[in-house]
């Protein structure tokens, strides 16, 4: 943990001399923030949420007493230890505040340096321990949820394999059985033309091929889910143009009413499984489509890629709402999401980055709030066959 990440002390006093004395006594020991008014202190607490481990305030200040300040500070920073410096004349108000749990400790003026130093050190030690406990609890909950997710994933993969098998077999039979039907209908159309039937007959091979490709993709997805649940991974290569084309088709329903989706790039192979690449692209395209909500403008999503001698750089660019700067790293944390309940799981970007880095690639996010986001993926280029 960096020094800047450790809990800090906030000292509030309307007397500038007291602020300087406090800083002279404890500035070398702790990371200190100083405020000369309660409103300034509350604004700082809002801005520095999670950083302040101790709030120490003078009791007598214009506009708001120290007790009132600490009562409001408790709402903003509930984990911070709240201490008060008071005169004997204010003791009853302080004792009442202690009994209500608004103040954890108080000191009578003039405070003793050794006593106050020991109290601050103890309070910050407790704050650091509580911070570590919360971090460990968070990791344990995350691990438990991810382990459960792995079990669910394995079960889904198992359940998918049966229907996918039937679908694949039936598509193969449909391709075989439709050939004589098409030939028969085509002969009759020669003597009895029908534009609607002719159009249907022309579209059938393409429709059946899409159905076959979809069945094949579902099978690969099920196998991929099973492989990931088992912790296995096989290195394969993918044709970027083919996978992008298929991912665009799959995402069409999600994107249709939100944005115009385009793709551009030449055929090139990368060291990355086609199913995994499709999974990554679908996540990124759907995220981009959902980022259009509330922007009030025509959405645009561009998927483009270009190759160098050794790498292929693939970008998904949108003109959506963008991501706040403070959240641009957190969006890659598992289970973190800014979307409403039922919309996001908080796993999409985390899984994307994990899959890409597993294969030696890189994922970089650039976002401007209110303007849009670009996610750039760098893959190793596959050697020529």
Automatic annotation (TrEMBL):
Domain Histidine kinase: 155-383
InterPro entries listed in its UniProt record: CheY-like_superfamily (IPR011006), HATPase_C_sf (IPR036890), HATPase_dom (IPR003594), His_kinase_dom (IPR005467), Sig_transdc_His_kin-like_C (IPR004358), Sig_transdc_resp-reg_receiver (IPR001789)
Span of domain Response regulatory: 8-124
UniProt keyword annotation of NAD present: no
UniProtKB keywords: ATP-binding, Kinase, Nucleotide-binding, Phosphoprotein, Transferase, Two-component regulatory system
Coiled-coil annotated residue ranges, if any: none
Catalytic activity: ATP + protein L-histidine = ADP + protein N-phospho-L-histidine
UniProt-listed Pfam families: HATPase_c, Response_reg
One function term, GO molecular function aspect: kinase activity
EC category: transferase
Spans through the membrane: none
Entry EC no(s): 2.7.13.3
Residues annotated with 4-aspartylphosphate modification: 58
Keyword Heme part of the UniProt annotation: no
Gene3D superfamilies given in the database record: 1.10.287.130, 3.40.50.2300, Histidine kinase-like ATPase, C-terminal domain
Protein name (database record): histidine kinase
